[in-house]
Design a protein that fits this description.
Layout: E1 2-11, E2 14-20, E3 24-28, H1 35-46, H2 48-51, E4 69-76, H3 84-93, E5 104-114, E6 119-127, E7 134-135, E8 149-154, H4 160-166, H5 168-171, H6 179-200, H7 203-219, H8 232-235, E9 244-245, E10 254-255, H9 259-275, E11 282-288, H10 296-308, E12 315-318, E13 331-338, E14 342-349, H11 359-369, E15 374-378, H12 381-394, E16 403-407, H13 414-422, E17 426-431, E18 436-438, E19 441-446, H14 448-460, E20 472-473, H15 486-503, H16 505-513, E21 516-518, H17 523-539, H18 543-549, H19 551-561, H20 564-572, H21 577-583
Parallel strand pairs: 3-12, 3-13, 8-11, 11-12, 15-16, 15-17, 17-21
Antiparallel strand pairs: 1-2, 1-4, 4-5, 5-6, 6-7, 9-10, 13-14, 18-19, 19-20
Helix pairs in contact: 4-9, 12-19, 12-20, 13-14, 17-18, 18-19
Length: 599
Amino acid sequence: MKLKSLVIENFRNFLRVEVNLTNQNVIFGMNDMGKTNLMCAMRFLLDRDMRKNGFKESDFYKSLTEKVIRITLGVDLSDRVENNDSKHIIAKVGGARSSDELNSFFFQVEGTYDKGEEAGIPKLFWGNKVDELEEIVQEGSFSPIDKIFNIVYVDPTIDLSTTFSKNRKKLFDQTKLDEQDIGISKEIKDLGIQLNTKISSMNVIQSFQTSITEEYKKLKKEKVNIEMKSELSINGYFSNLIPYIKKDNDDNIYPTSGDGRKKILAYSLLNHLIKAREGNRIIIFLIEEPENSLHRSMQIALSKQLFSSEVYQYFFLSTHSSELLYEMDNASLIRIYSKETVVCESYIYQVDDEYKQVKKELNRSLATALFAEKVLLVEGPSEKVLFEKILEEVFPTYELDGGYILDVSGIKFKPYSKVLKKLNIDVIVKTDNDLKAKRGQPKVFDLIGLQRCMNLLNIELEDNDTPSIEPVEIDYFHKGGKTFSESTKIKKIAEMKLKIYDRYSDEINRMKDKQIYLSKLDLEHDLFEVIGSRMTEILGKNPIKYLQDHKLINMIELTNSLLKDDCIKIIQHPLFESLRKLVKYEQPSGSDGERSDTQ
């Protein structure tokens, strides 16, 4: 079985949303956008305890009770020959599946408000044609759906003691004691009786019992005595068990203190219970913001559990933590955000084979960007350092306003652009006008910078067949076959880049319309065109070469000396329009944005 789709209509802050699902689903967005409500929609559909009280007036969108709440889950049963969960569904739904469209099946709950009951009465439907679902007969609050699914809701404040107490009987099922355990149990019972006898013989206990009995009889005339007993012999030894920590090579035991440790142990208990479960109900976890109280390293460990463990085969995870997404693959990313009404965008995220070896690095950068409204993609750390410095001086609240600068670090722009755009996150790109000599043809250069931008443009246009741009020839050889000096070679390449920038001006302008910005040459030359004299003042007589020799270290040296006026001049220049797009920077009245140190 594969979770396929979820449609929510007229429920809480959702007028109508439809999201694509996989078996592992990640829900993210700003606070109060509806992450919890999406979880609740799943619970109303599949959780009997949630459904039995019906829909309240406040569960209806804008309390418009004349509308019908409708929540529909679609599943894919195309793996029904080999998958036990698909077989289980088919066995339970029986004749609700017609002979056609056998690969799909839908479960639905409707809520129509009843003024007499002052509640929306849930009605359940199922079938493999979403427009022709049949109503399910319920017995009170119980439904045949409850024989198929088991919802496990894990709230952000999951409590160890509550989880342990609630499941103590399941954890220590006394019906499963073997003969040796039964013998030991009898011995413990006898020891419990001896324990209470010893306790009762203590003077302090006897004195207290006499005193409290007298006080009791003053209030209520009864022939009784109050006696103190250990619950060990009354309720059994299992009722008194609580978990402690025992470290390796240490005979002492330690209480499970600390919110983080308690939370990890609570998850461990859930894992144990699921693995030991009996029956074949399909378990769907609804896990809400588990990062609370967990150290970063524990969040990463939990990420590995969620996305790799067989226990969490089906889950919905809401989170604000990028660390929890380090191990994600084959997951549905569900972004909830607001325009005039709450909107959901979903994207089935699968790590491409070429990035499998750097999955954690890819996910780490991508996951942070998922929580932004606008993302500026840059080639490397030196660009990120420079742009962060500029915004720190000119627009220090850019991250609070939803902006984020993402260094693609050699992983390329494509995987980030593709995911972010599908989730309707605004993407801006700034990259160099790079050329690369063909192998074995030192005078022939591919236009890899321009090609990179064209490929990104066609992602936006959903056109994967981007034509290759014709290479160019740069002749930097003397007639005798010897190369010119390195400086002359660099100059010839720079001249060619400027020709390319001019030759493809129409394409470059079209890319700008889609927020893809190509440098005339590269970042260092762009910067020199704007604040050349300041760069010379700070870095010496050849600042471009100085920056390019040790890009990050020397860029940090430059940014440490930049003043606010320098940063304002940079962000106002046309070559750095990408930065203005990130923050919606408005040009001062009367500024043409063209002045620079080289003019």
